[in-house]
Amino acid sequence: MSPAPANAEVTAVDTTGRWPLLLLLVSAIKWLVLSGVLALIASIQLIQPSFLADCVVFTHGRTVALTETAFIYGWGANAGLAIALWVLGRLGGAPLRALNWAVVGTIFWNLSVLLGLVGIATGDATGVGLLQMPRYVQPVMLVAYGAIGVAGVLAWLGRRHECTFAAQWYAVAALFLFPWIFSAAQVTLFWLPVRGVLQAVAGGWFAQGAWTLWLAPLGLAGAYFVVPKVTGRTLPSYDFAPHAFWCLLVLGAVTGGRHLIGGPVPAWIASLAIVACSLLLFHYFVVFINLRGAFGAGGTALKLVAFGLGAYVLGGLVDAITAFRGVALVTQFTHVDTAQEQLALYGGFSMMIFGAIYYAVPRLTGQSWASAALVRGHAMLAMLGVTALVVSLTVAGWIQGHELLDAKVTFADIASHTRFWLLLAVAAQAVLLLGNLLLLVNFCWSACRACCPAEPADSVAFRQPAAMEAPAS
Amino acid sequence: MRNAPLFFLGLFVALTLSWAGTVLFADHQLGALAPYIDDSDPVNPSYPPQQPGIAARGQLVYADLGCASCHTQAVRRPDFGSDQARGWGDRQSVARDYIYQTRVQLGAERLGPDLTNLAGRKPSALDASNLMKLLYAGQGAMPAYKFLFDERAIVGEPADSRLMLVGRLAPAAGREIVPTERARSLVAFLLSLNNTFEYPEARPVAPEAPKKEEGKK
């Protein structure tokens, strides 16, 4: 055991940020579970179309929109912001300020996500991917996001050290850029809509930007913070990290055009995206080199980050491959697209964030996780679920893509040929949901224990740094 | 990254570059696309035709029900996919086809057929009563959308708009099934999807003579 002073692992950042950040995290995990339930319904509908079909709220298109919205704006935003604020506070070296703003922002953000979901369920969905929420909630979300982001910006501006770290760049970039892409997309799609297919171009730009300029940097902020902290080593080839950062920011949002290959838009949009996808490999390569220390010994937190890192890099590679026109011909409009999205959002982003949560929460509460078994259980189920989901959807999509190319194969045939793999995807969704329920239980349990002060003997033991790590599995 | 203003400026420039490069430049290129006007046709001189109001409303129903999660609305060129061989359209979709649409729904997945040219398919396109029945009863992987219809007792004469159903689906004696306003708008939108006219930009770039496999009935 490390001979470090008992309280070194819990700083003033953690004690002042405890309740605001735990509020963000509990909201996030609650939406994650809800989105898992909806995803399960949507995946069952793919093999059994009549499932809940008579219920207008759960018609397949709406279930898909609800799943995606709860996942991105419920889980992704809340959890990513919590981790970003915590990382900025920790690396800034001073307690977070303006946290009352963050609490108000969190409450309004989550109320507007709830209102947005109710809006989608009752017929106000916009039909634009990743931006399905009715336009009446979107301005509120923008303001709420700003209120949460204030704490992050203050932490960055008031930092104790002049020099900055990669985790800070990614966190600040995500905090700063989301309001811009969100408002630009709203204006061009809903308030002053552009004409015709330009809506598809603007929608594609936003969907890609939400991933590459917002969610991916949030996940990377967590990973760039956790990996050196847990391994206790400096990051290799760190000099390249700024290049990787700017590479992602400049090229990231341009890659969205690959979904429009062969579509009724100017061909240069797709060509630009294909080139950008290949150039972006530099970013993935550097991130992999920087964080390769994650693939080694370490607790569950590091294992999850390592899995997330692997999925993130693999996702970048797959993006570049499927962007080529010859491959896109098969994969376009199939389950492969969904698989790629899940690989990025679940395998990459969520896993890195899970890892960061397992690292951060013991420090925020000042105690270790309530149950080590639940931590291990969640990590195992999450890794198993994501792998099964991505593999099954990829195979299903590959079969679907080849059969779509043959005009003689009917949709009924395609459905029957992909049925087994879609069943496997249903099972994977169930596994993921179960895992996330374990996380919710464990999180609430841990937060409750932080409410009622633990026995004095306990707290000293728990504050040993080694005890703060999620248990090794 | 010591210089905070420079850092934020860099972020902003990176974002603006991607937005201006894709959205603004595409808008500059396509934002002013005009229809072709055929003065010899007094009824509907514009190509593509203007969307009737009920079809524009129907497109919002299409968006809200998430039809685009299974259906696309873009036919690709003949050498790229089997779109035309499947009879979804005789030519590729071009930007001009969409200029009047309120909420363009190109779609991302094909679990069902493409709908770009649903009302213009040859030899026989579906008509309103086919579409109503399809929505009410579902078919294959497409679920039934019964919530778009009302079942009610016949008072006086049966309604003109009632669905003519037979067999298992038929309502009990003295009752009828009529489409709601939303169903009517949706069907009006689906029937407005017709791209049977030619544009110069929609012709294949290099028409190679032997590539003639449109022998599909």
Radius of gyration of chain A: 22 Å
Most strands sheet of chain B: 2 strands, antiparallel
Largest interface (CB within 8 Å) is between:
A-B, 84 and 73 residues
CATH class of chain B: Mainly Alpha
> Which strand-content bin applies to the residues of chain A?
under 5%
Count of separate structural domains of chain A? 3
In terms of topology, how is this protein built?
The complex is a heterodimer of chains A (473) and B (217).
Chain A: H1 12-47, H2 60-92, H3 99-121, H4 138-157, H5 166-191, H6 198-231, H7 241-251, H8 267-279, H9 281-290, H10 300-322, H11 325-331, H12 335-365, H13 372-405, H14 411-451, H15 456-462, H16 465-468
Helix pairs in contact in A: 1-2, 1-3, 1-12, 1-14, 2-3, 2-4, 2-5, 2-6, 2-12, 3-4, 4-5, 5-6, 6-10, 6-12, 7-9, 9-10, 10-12, 10-13, 12-13, 13-14
Chain B: H1 4-30, E1 36-37, E2 46-47, H2 53-64, H3 128-137, E3 149-153, E4 175-179, H4 181-191
Antiparallel strand pairs in B: 1-2, 3-4
Keywords for this entry:
heterodimer, A: 473 residues, mainly alpha, 3 domains, 75% helix, disordered N terminus, B: 217 residues, Cytochrome Bc1 Complex, Chain D, domain 2, two-stranded antiparallel ribbon, 4 strands, globular
